[in-house]
C-alpha cells in the first residue's frame, strides 16, 4: 500500500475530497495546486505550484509512493489552455514521476474520450472519438499516460462520468438556483434520455482502490460511474421537488432550442458547450463491469442520491452572486440563459 501520496489539483473538488479521505486514513499526503483554498485538510501538507513545471513537480514527488493526477482544465477554458494544461500537464507529471522513481501514477481521465458513442453501455475498449477541444485533450493525455505505462510505470487510468457532491457548482448551480427561486426548469427535448453520473464519494473510493490494488490489476483503464441512474428528467425533477415550490421540468422542442443554444455558445453568451448539448439528446452511460470485477469497485450512491446531496449542500453553503466559472467549484455565469427565467 502506498504510504506517501502526492495529489495534483488538490484545491479542486476531487482533489480536495481525495486529500481529506487519504489523510483521514493515515496516508502522508501532499496536495499541489496553483491556488490555495481556505479550510483545507489540517492533516495534509500543501504546496503551490504549476503541474507544467516539471522540475518543480520532480522535487515535489521525490520520495512519494504514488501520485494521483487530478489537475485539469475545464471545457470553458480556451482551446490552447485546455491542451496545455491537460496534455502538457499530464506529460509533465508523469515525466516527474518517472525521474523521481515514483512507482505508480493514477491518471484521472474522463468518459469524454469516447466522444458521443452510440454504443451504450460503453466499454473501455470503445475507440476514443473526441468531438471537441476538451475531449481531444483528454484523449491525447491518455495516449501520453499509456506511453509511460508501456515503459514500465504502473499507470491506472480512471474514466469517471460527471461527478457530483458537496462543493460541486458549475452548471448544476443554475438548476439549483432556479429550483430555489421556485421556477420551472427547461429541458432540451423530453428529457427521457438516461444520463449516468457519479457521486464524489464513489469516485474517491475508486481512486483509493487504484492506489491499493496490486500493480497487475491497477495498471489498466477503468470506467467509473453510478450503477443506479434514471432519466435526466427524473433526476432534475427530484431537485425541483426537494425545493418544495411546485416547480416542474418543462420540455422544449429539441431542434430549435439546440440551434439557439449553439449560437449563444459560439458567441459566448451561454456557458453550455456544444458537446454537452448533444449529450443531453441521447442515452449516455458506460459499463462499470471491469471496475467491479477487477478493482472491487461498487458505487454506493445513485444519480439521484448524488444530485440531491449536492443540492442540500448548495442550499446551506452557496453564494449565488459569486460566479467565476473557472472551476467545477464555482457557479458558472449563466449569460443570456438568465434572461430566460422570465418564461419559467
Q: How would you describe the overall organization of this protein?
A:
This protein is an alpha/beta fold and 344 residues long. The protein has 2 domains: 4-163 and 197-224, NAD(P)-binding Rossmann-like Domain (Rossmann fold), CATH 3.40.50; 166-196 and 229-283 and 303-343, UDP-galactose 4-epimerase, domain 1 (Alpha-Beta Complex). It has 12 helices and 11 strands. The chain has helices at residues 13-24, 54-61, 79-100, 133-150, 172-180, 200-212, 215-218, 232-243, 254-266, 274-279, 289-295, 303-317; strands at residues 4-8, 28-33, 45-48, 66-69, 105-108, 157-160, 163-164, 185-188, 198-199, 221-224, 249-252. The protein has a 7-stranded parallel beta sheet, with helices on both faces. A two-stranded parallel ribbon has the order 7-9. Strands 8-11 form a two-stranded parallel sheet. Residues 321-337 have low confidence and may be disordered.
Radius of gyration, taken over Cα atoms and rounded to an integer in Å: 20 Å
Structural class by SSE content: alpha/beta
Percent in strands: 5-15%
| Domain module count | 2
Query: Regions with pLDDT < 50 over 5+ consecutive residues?
Result: 321-337
Number of strands: 11
Shape: globular
User: What CATH architecture of the largest domain would you give?
Assistant: 3-Layer(aba) Sandwich
**Helix proportion:** 40-55%
Please give the CATH class of the largest domain.
Alpha Beta
CATH topology of the largest domain: Rossmann fold
The description of the largest β-sheet is:
7 strands, parallel
Number of helices: 12
The oligomeric state of the chains shown is single chain
Supply the CATH superfamily name of the largest domain: NAD(P)-binding Rossmann-like Domain
- What is the average of the pLDDT values? 88
Amino acid at each position: 500500500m502506498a504510504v506517501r501520496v502526492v495529489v495534483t489539483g488538490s484545491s479542486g473538488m476531487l482533489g480536495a475530497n481525495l486529500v481529506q479521505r487519504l489523510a483521514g486514513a493515515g496516508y502522508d499526503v501532499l496536495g499541489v495546486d496553483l491556488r490555495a483554498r481556505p479550510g483545507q485538510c489540517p492533516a495534509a501538507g500543501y504546496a503551490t505550484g504549476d503541474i507544467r513545471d516539471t522540475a518543480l513537480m520532480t522535487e515535489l514527488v521525490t520520495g512519494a509512493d504514488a501520485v494521483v493526477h487530478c489537475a485539469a482544465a475545464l471545457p470553458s477554458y480556451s482551446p490552447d489552455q485546455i491542451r496545455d494544461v491537460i496534455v502538457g500537464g499530464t506529460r509533465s507529471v508523469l515525466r516527474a514521476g518517472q525521474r523521481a522513481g515514483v512507482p505508480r501514477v493514477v491518471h484521472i481521465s474522463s468518459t469524454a474520450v469516447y466522444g458521443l458513442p452510440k454504443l451504450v453501455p460503453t466499454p473501455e475498449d470503445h475507440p476514443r472519438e473526441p468531438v471537441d477541444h476538451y475531449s481531444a485533450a483528454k484523449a491525447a493525455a491518455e495516449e501520453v499516460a499509456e506511453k509511460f505505462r508501456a515503459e514500465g510505470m504502473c499507470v491506472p487510468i480512471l474514466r469517471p462520468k460527471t461527478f457530483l457532491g458537496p462543493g460541486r457548482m458549475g452548471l448544476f448551480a443554475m438548476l439549483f438556483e432556479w429550483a430555489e427561486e421556485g421556477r420551472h426548469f427547461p429541458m432540451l427535448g423530453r428529457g427521457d434520455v438516461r444520463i449516468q453520473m457519479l457521486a464524489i464519494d464513489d469516485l474517491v473510493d475508486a481512486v483509493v482502490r487504484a492506489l491499493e490494488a496490486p500493480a497487475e490489476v491497477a495498471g489498466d483503464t477503468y470506467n467509473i460511474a453510478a450503477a443506479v441512474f434514471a432519466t435526466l428528467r427524473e433526476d432534475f425533477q427530484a431537485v425541483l421537488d426537494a425545493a418544495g415550490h411546485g416547480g416542474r421540468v418543462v420540455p422544449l422542442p429539441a431542434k430549435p432550442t439546440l440551434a439557439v443554444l449553439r449560437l449563444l455558445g459560439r458567441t459566448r453568451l451561454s456557458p453550455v458547450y456544444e458537446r454537452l448539448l448533444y449529450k443531453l439528446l441521447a442515452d449516455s452511460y458506460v459499463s462499470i463491469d471491469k471496475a467491479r470485477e477487477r478493482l472491487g469497485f461498487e458505487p454506493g450512491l445513485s444519480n439521484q442520491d448524488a444530485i440531491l446531496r449536492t443540492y442540500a449542500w448548495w442550499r446551506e453553503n452557496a453564494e449565488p452572486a459569486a460566479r467565476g466559472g473557472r472551476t467545477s467549484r464555482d457557479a458558472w455565469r449563466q449569460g443570456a440563459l438568465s434572461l430566460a427565467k422570465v418564461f419559467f
